[in-house]
Amino acid sequence: MIAEAGHYALVLALALALIQSFVPMIGARLRDPALMNVARSTALAQLLFVGASFIALVTLHVNSDFSVANVYENSHSMKPLIYKITGVWGNHEGSMLLWVSILALFGGLVAAFGNNLPLSLRAHVLAVQAWIASAFYLFILITSNPFLRIVNPPIEGRDLNPVLQDIGLAVHPPMLYLGYVGFSISFSFAIAALIEGRIDAAWARWVRPWTLVAWIFLTLGIAMGSYWAYYELGWGGWWFWDPVENASLMPWLAGTALLHSALVMEKRNALKVWTILLSILTFSLSLLGTFLVRSGVITSVHTFANDPTRGVFILLILCLFIGGSLLLFAGRATSLKQGGLFAPISREGALVLNNLLLTVACAVVLFGTLYPLAMEVLADFKMSVGAPFYNLTFAPLFALLLLAVPFGPMLAWKRGDLLGVTQRLLAAGVAGLVLIAIVWAWTRGGSALAPLAIGLGVFVIAGAVTDLAERTGLFRLPLATTLHRARGLPRSAWGAAFAHAGLGVALIGIVCETTWNSEYIATMKPNDVAQVAGYDLKLDGLLERQGPNYREMIAQFNVSGGGEALSVMTPSKRSFTTRGSSTTEAALLTRGASQLYISLGDVTAEGAIAVRIYHKPLVLMIWWGPVLMAFGGVLSLSDRRLRVGAPKPARTKQRLQPAE
Amino acid sequence: MTRKQRRMTIIGGSLAVLALAAALVLNALRDSIVFFSTPTMVAEKHVQPGKRFRLGGLVQPGSLQRGDNLAVTFEVADGGAKLPVAYKGILPDLFREGQGVVAEGALDANGVFKADTVLAKHDETYMPKDVADALKKQGHWKDDYGAKASGDTKPSGNPKPSSDAKPSATTAQGNSQGAVR
Questions:
Q1: What are the helix and strand counts (H, E) for chain B?
Q2: Other C-beta atoms within 10 Å of A76: how many?
Q3: Is the Cβ pair B173, A578 closer than 8 Å?
């Protein structure tokens, strides 16, 4: 019953989405408020029905109803409850259902909180949302229905892929989807603006918070995925330039550019056409990411099943939306009026440079991702484009961007004073140079690029601090004034400083981890001692243990540093009976921002075990950086001017005052 | 500065960044791309020792030998030819004889492939796509394998003809965890 109810709810959601696709559009054409308001109720009802459908699937998984194919394929009655729930999106059908649920959630949020939007704009935005939703409901119902029954229900399920049985699955996909799908809102706003042929600074103020929300989740989702890969895959890698990772990085790069260009549009009413194009491109890249991951074009851990019809269907959706929106853009963009003049050296100019470098870096990643696919289809030979390619292309472009980051916020709007800013950033530059010198002296002989990159990271962080110090008059004015000013500073200024500092933090982490990572691989017998980066790791022994749906072998290591016992680390190897496969559970020991990392290999005939021990200096900074960026995003989101309804009351008050 | 001049500055700047990116990409394409080969392709074309490439195929059953200190050797075969591979380190969890594997490295002077990375993906049913395609092309693709691989259920990487789908999986389950019912 539950499965049928879930299926039916999904069909109803499709019907609602179809109504939402057309009725508000007709309403906007006829200027009929009743018809335009249909969008609001259908969007909310749609959310209700998709939500019901999603809850139905969760219930089926929790109840281990193996008469449903999706549950049978991906669940097991002995699986812990948390993995029964997260397993819902640990497979193709379920993850697509999560995708549309989040799409409906964003549509519902616009409907619920978009009361200050002009009626026709809201109607158009929700209609465009419904187009996307309809396409994906059809995709799910036709090619990947999660509610299909099995005629002869088996007694036990086939269990979830062991690698996915981890808390990471509870966090990473929902976060990532909130990011991916969140960009659909800016896309819908862009299309709505093109249809209406009208766009102004207020438009940017409406779009920015949505973009920011999506960006925050995408940032956290990517960081979470990277940390998950780091501790789960057993060899301490945190980024592989895998096409699937690139698929999430590209919308992030484009979305970051969009955040900055929307800023120019909001404050100075310039870069309108570019902002619209960027909104379209960002969501197109999200769709491309969905296609790459879901179609089976690329085989990876993320590809749950390969079915050609699914690939073709998503490709059709992709072409329809990207092609259609770009055509509309080409036809309508010229009608948008340009505004806001600015000199090349100004805040606007800096943001243009930011956009330029981000989009070009994004294009490079796109090229690296699609080139091997294209060559395989056209020239019939295979190749892989990996880290060496991106180190030579993406890294220099990003370094250039980081070099410019501290200058941006300190330049004035319209016309900036580059010399003055350089003088004010002198302290930050000096801090960077001093650190370069120290690191250079300390590592003599290592890669010359590493100290430079660390210096760059310090420069970015110090630049963010300098910007705040300049704005609050730190050290120039009395402390009380500074504090008062700091309180009065817009939250978005704090947000920008945190986000920019986060970039520097992540860069330092990345450079330290890749340059000074030490590795120790050997077979160890009980009581053997491994020495890695000043730590002694003594293997105490091996023991076996039975988990809920697996058996595991645990190795116990006593870790000591400088003659002092520190901790016990217990890496393990789990074998899952149902799927006959095993996973390596690495053990991590955090010391400051650095980590010791142990993962196990096979046991040899003599009872020794192969171990892999890493010392990863400052590795945690790689993920602290994105967390800082996301925190900056949240601060910026809480800025006064972005609060719902903020722009309107100010004006009405002014008008009312004379009457008093 | 007039409006036109400003626009030209921006366009000029954009072109400069694009040109820089294009130069970087072209430069990177010259030597940082790794090509994929199978043992047959290696045998047919003369591959320079020291030239990095990715080797894909099936691990020849019975060829895996473990030496001292985590050194391993095995052979990678694709039905047409075999190539010896030497590797030092921990093999991935899912490395098995008779299963697909992708190794990255270069040939040494004796024609042994020195691998510095061995990849096996994280699902026991996974056969690296490159390997599957190469085997298909050479006609070593077993039909039941293909049917399963493109089917809706998880493809089984095990090329043996008997299906291990529902019945055996359930019984195995019933035995090992008989306490459930």
A1: 5, 7
A2: 27
A3: yes
Count CB neighbours of B114 within 10 A: 16
Test A364 with B24 for CB contact under 8 angstroms.
yes
pLDDT digits (tens, 9 = 90+) for A445-473: 667 788 889 999 999 999 999 999 888 88
User: Using one digit for the tens of pLDDT, what is the confidence trace for A598-651?
Assistant: 998 888 777 888 898 999 999 999 999 999 999 999 999 988 766 554 444 444
Q: What value does the mean pLDDT take over residues A574-580?
A: 81
pLDDT in the model for residue A647: 45
Cα A191 to Cα A121, A203, A273, A318, A524: the distances in Å are 10, 12, 12, 16, 62
> A568: which residues sit within 8 A by CB, 6+ positions away?
A540, A556, A557, A558, A559
Mean pLDDT over each residue of chain A, to the nearest integer: 88
Residues with Cβ within 8 Å of residue B106, at least 6 apart in sequence: B49, B50, B51, B52, B53, B113, B114
DSSP character for B46?
Answer: -
Helix (H, G, I), strand (E, B) or coil at A490: coil
Parallel/antiparallel/unpaired status of strands B52-59 and B100-107: antiparallel
pLDDT tens by residue, A419-445: 888 888 888 888 888 888 888 777 766
* ipTM of the complex model: 0.78
Position B37: which residue type? S
Over the stretch B36-80, which tens digit does the pLDDT of each residue have?
A: 888 888 888 777 888 888 888 888 888 888 877 788 899 988 877
Q: How far apart are CA A314 and CA A369, in angstroms?
A: 18
Closest residue in A to B156 (Cα) is A579
Chain B touched by A219 (CB under 8 Å): no
Q: Are the beta carbons of A153 and A66 closer than 8 angstroms?
A: yes
Q: How sure is the predictor about A483, in pLDDT bands with cuts at 50, 70 and 90?
A: confident
Q: Directed axis angle between helix A167-196 and helix A243-268, to 10°?
A: 40
> Nearest CA to A508 among A579, A428, A453?
A453
Cβ atoms B112, B84 nearer than 8 A: yes
Taking contacts as CB-CB distances below 8 angstroms, the residues of chain A near B44 are none
Note whether A365 and A250 are within 8 A (CB). Answer: yes
Q: Which of residues 276-315 of A touch B (CB under 8 A)?
A: 298-301, 305-308
How close does chain A come to B88, measured CA to CA in Å? Answer: 9
Ramachandran region of residue A604, left (φ > 0), alpha (ψ -120 to 50) or beta? beta
Domain locations in chain B as residue ranges:
1-30, 39-121, 129-165
The low-confidence residues of chain B, meaning pLDDT below 50, are: 122-126, 141-181
Ramachandran angles phi, psi of A356, nearest 5°: -60, -50
Residue range B39-121, CATH number: 2.40.50.140
What integer pLDDT is reported at residue B123 of this predicted model?
Answer: 39
Longest dimension (CA), chain B: 84
The DSSP 8-state label assigned to residue A379 in this structure reads T
| Rg of chain A over all Cα atoms, to the nearest angstrom | 27
Residue with tokens 């004010």: A424
Contact status of B17 with chain A (Cβ, < 8 Å): yes
Q: Given the DSSP bridges, would you call strands B113-119 and B82-88 parallel, antiparallel or unpaired?
A: parallel
> Residue A604's closest chain B neighbor by CA?
B66
Judge whether residue A59 has pLDDT over 90.
Answer: yes
A647, two tokens:
């722009």
pLDDT at B170: 30
Of B28, B133, B155, Cβ closest to residue A392: B28
Find, among A355, A346, A213, A345, the residue nearest to A273 by Cα.
A355
- Give per-residue burial for A13-25: e unless 16+ CB within 10 Å, then b: bbbbbbbbbebbb
Strand ranges (E), A289-390: 383-385
pLDDT at A194: 92
pLDDT of B154 reads 34
